[in-house]
Amino acid sequence: MYKLYSMQRSGNSYKVRLALSLLNAPYKAIEVDILRGESRTPEFLARNPSGQVPLLEVADGRYLAESNAILWYVAIGTSLAPEDRIDRAQALQWMFFEQHALEPSVGAAYFWLVLVRGGRDLQTHSLEDWMERGYAALRVMENHLKTHDYFAAGHLTVADIAMYGYTHVANQCDFDLSGYPSVRAWLKRIEQEPRFVSMAWKPAEVAAPETAPGTETGLRAEA
User: Fold this and answer.
1) CA angle in degrees (0–180, nearest 5) for 99-91-3
2) Rounded to an integer, what distance in angstroms lies between the CA atom of residue 32 and that of residue 208?
3) 20 to 30 A from 201, CA-CA: which of 4, 23, 26, 113?
4) For every residue of the chain, which 3-state class applies, written as one string?
5) In this predicted model, what pLDDT tens digit does every residue of 99-146 receive, in sequence order?
6) Are 170 and 106 in contact (CB under 8 A)?
7) CB distance 210 to 43 below 8 Å
8) Which of 188, 149, 200, 158 is nearest to 7 (CA)?
9) What are the CA-CA distances from residue 84 to residues 91, 92, 94, 190 (Å)?
10) C-alpha atoms less than 13 angstroms from C-alpha of 148 in its C-beta half-sphere
11) What is the tens place of the pLDDT at every residue in 18-33?
């Protein structure tokens, strides 16, 4: 059984929990609160030197970091990971897009405006850039989804899960999706999938952190 170190309200962590649920894959969830420094303790850093969540223990003492790498790992051999060469490359194309265009804008806005207390005041200088880059990413998505139901292979893949993670919370951090009807329709398609779970959903067994919280804030952690 997998052991998943994640934070409940982290978009990147949620992507992995969503994939595992869609695949009906059993796992043990361990909550790691990056805002309390729990990903910066010596014990956690020994597992993942970058101090990020999500982190998946795939075998005893073997760990895999980076949310999109974890998505590929758990999806291999299922319909979520396309086998066709071009379909697989296109899925990767959108997952790269998610990390360089969507996550640094919508993801950053969500982290600071929703998760961090007082984050709006701390990041006032960044808001305009986040909005500009975020809306640019949403326009690219909208244009694609006008003629496609999904991002690759004509069906649900890990690319959609990666893109869904932060897009579905964009409205919580100042982004207005009313002008993106294709994006909103795609979000609904994802939410109608069998075994879909929301970000707020928790698996039956959620373990507390295995170590005491550290003193660092953990704001560098992948959220």
Assistant:
1) 65
2) 8
3) 113
4) CEEEEECCCCHHHHHHHHHHHHCCCCEEEEECCHHHCCCCCHHHHHHCCCCCCCEEEEECCEEEECHHHHHHHHHCCCCCCCCCHHHHHHHHHHHHHHHHHHHHHHHHHHHHHHHCCCHHHHCHHHHHHHHHHHHHHHHHHHHHHCCCCCCCCCCCCHHHHHHHHHHCCHHHHCCCCCCCHHHHHHHHHHHCCCCCCCCCCCCCCEECCCCCCCCCCCCCCCC
5) 999 999 999 999 999 999 999 999 999 999 999 999 999 999 999 999
6) yes
7) yes
8) 200
9) 10, 12, 16, 22
10) 15
11) 999 999 999 999 999 9
Q: How far apart are CA 185 and CA 135, in angstroms?
A: 17
Please state whether beta strands 2-6 and 27-31 pair in parallel, antiparallel, or not at all (unpaired). parallel
The burial class, CB within 10 Å (0-12 / 13-18 / 19+), for 216 is middle
Distance CA 99, CA 112 (A): 17
With beta carbons less than 8 A apart as the criterion, state whether 15 and 165 touch.
yes
With b meaning 16 or more CB within 10 Å and e meaning fewer, what string describes 135-167? bebbeebbebbeeeebbbbeebbbbbbbbbbbb
CB neighbour list of residue 78: distance below 8 Å, 6 or more residues apart = 23
Structure tokens at 39: 């990903």
Q: CB of 214 within 8 A of CB of 37?
A: yes
